[in-house]
Amino acid sequence: MLKIYDFKGFPNPTRIRIAVAEKGLGDKVEFVNVDVPAAAHKQPAFLAKNPSGTVPVLELEDGTCIAECTAITEYIDNLEGPPTLTGKGARERAVVHMMQRRAESGLLDAAATYFHHATPGLGPHIEIYQNREWGEKNRERALAGMRYLDQVLAPQPYLAGERFTMADITAFAGLAYADIASIEVPADLVRLKAWRARVAERPSVAHA
Ligand SMILES: N[C@@H](CCC(=O)N[C@@H](CS)C(=O)NCC(=O)O)C(=O)O
Predict the structure, then answer these.
(1) Residue 19 near ligand 1, beta carbon < 6 Å
(2) Ligand 1 and 68: CB distance under 6 A
(3) Whose CA is nearest to atom 2 of ligand 1?
(4) What is the pTM of this model?
(5) 55-77 CB burial, b ≥16 within 10 A, e <16
(6) What is the percent of the chain where pLDDT is above 70?
(7) Is 11 touching ligand 1 by the criterion CB < 6 Å?
(8) Pair 18, 172: CB distance under 8 Å
(9) Is the CB of 181 under 6 A from ligand 1?
(10) Closest CA to 119 of 132, 133, 138, 106
(11) What is the DSSP annotation of 3-32?
(12) pLDDT, tens only, 130-140
């Protein structure tokens, strides 16, 4: 049995719950709750699994711990059946990773940085360093990221082209993070809003 340490409902754990559901691997995975609000992810037992002190973490049967949603998604996508989330062949894999990274850096991580630095975040026991100016800058970055993704969707239904991929999962979680941080999607980004509504209807996303 694979173990995934996470906290249900948080944006990054949601990325992996979507990936597991997309691949139909729910019966191969045990989700282990990490009490993030109580700072369990900053205690030595968890830091031994992931020195970054973040969820999710995938633990294989041989004890190998894999952190970072991109790496976990790669593993899940290649576990059984042909890969569907991370691309097939050199070109598609490269485009998926490029778009994933743009969604991650420009939207998800930007919204997270705003949340952790310019709002109370997870509370003073966890947010031991805050830089408000850097946080505010990242709010602007998140909005620019949304605008960029809206443009990407002009000629195509999904962020990496014709199919739903890891890039869409990351951007969807990025918008969830923006919601948590009260960064509203600007009203004129109609393509991004329509894409979000379509993605939300996928069974894997609806149940994550
Ligand atoms: N780049 C990491 C981000 C993981 C992350 O930041 N997870 C959040 C939950 S959404 C977390 O553990 N936050 C706790 C904290 O920052 O103290 C990944 O892809 O897994």
Answers:
(1) no
(2) yes
(3) 68
(4) 0.97
(5) bbbbbeeeeeebbbbbebbbbbb
(6) 100
(7) yes
(8) yes
(9) no
(10) 132
(11) EEEE-TTSHHHHHHHHHHHHTT-GGGEEEE
(12) 999 999 999 99
